[in-house]
Write a structure and sequence with these properties.
Strand content: under 5%
Distance between the termini: 57 Å
Largest sheet: none
Order of helices and strands: HHHHHHH
Organism: Desulfurobacterium thermolithotrophum (strain DSM 11699 / BSA)
Protein name: SNARE associated Golgi protein-like protein
Number of helices: 7
Transmembrane segments: 12-32, 52-73, 132-154, 166-184
Oligomer: single chain
Structural class: mainly alpha
InterPro entries: DedA_domain (IPR051311)
Radius of gyration: 18 Å
Keywords: Membrane, Transmembrane, Transmembrane helix
């Protein structure tokens, strides 16, 4: 399908600019498979001087979309999960998720993990909407503003690096965040010297 091709969305970005970016960032956080990075990178290559504006739009509308994904999970997914797995099991998973929800949403927003999975899951597990919003803004902002900064300071020549290496770098940073968080929790519980 043409609508799922990267070229289609690159052309869409150039045609509709920040409005297309806002639309894509919003729907991607709920259900759509094409990440806003495709449009963000396209716009940043075309106009690096406005890269931070594009990052702001992507962060803002992706976070708004995250709220939409949350409510989709809350009103649509939660009753289905209760029916499929039972209310007790869902509540048990909720308690586990609740312990790590800030870190989970932060990592989902920052790394290449599909963000929509965690926005909808947060609703299904009736996690804190407030935490979802805060950590979505932080995680999505870190990702999009990092991309924008590279284009703003180095121009279109960093496109190859961003396309081929940035997801790996984000993943490595995400792994270190998880390790750091787990070490901190063990230290706080007195299990480390």
């Amino acid at each position: 399908m043409e609508i799922l091709s990267l070229q289609y969305w690159q052309d869409f970005a150039l045609k509709y600019g920040i409005y297309g970016l806002a639309f894509n960032a919003f729907i991607e956080a709920i259900f759509f498979p094409i990440p806003p990075d495709v449009l963000l990178i396209t716009l940043c290559v075309a106009d690096p001087q406005n890269a931070f504006l594009y990052a702001f739009i992507a962060t803002l509308f992706s976070s708004f979309g995250g709220v939409g994904g949350y409510y989709l999970g809350y009103f649509g997914g939660k009753p289905l999960a209760f029916k499929l797995f039972g209310e007790d099991k869902v509540k048990k998973v909720h308690r586990l998720y609740e312990s790590y929800e800030g870190l989970i949403v932060l990592l989902a927003g920052f790394t290449p993990i599909p963000y929509k999975v965690f926005t909808v899951t947060s609703g299904i597990l009736f996690a804190s909407l407030k935490k979802l919003i805060v950590f979505s803004i932080i995680g999505r902002g870190l990702r999009f503003f990092s991309e924008a900064a590279l284009f703003y300071f180095y121009g279109a020549q960093v496109k190859h690096f961003v396309l081929h290496n940035l997801n790996i770098l984000f993943t490595v940073v995400g792994v270190f965040l998880i390790i750091g968080f787990l070490v901190y929790r063990r230290y706080k519980k007195g299990r480390l010297p």
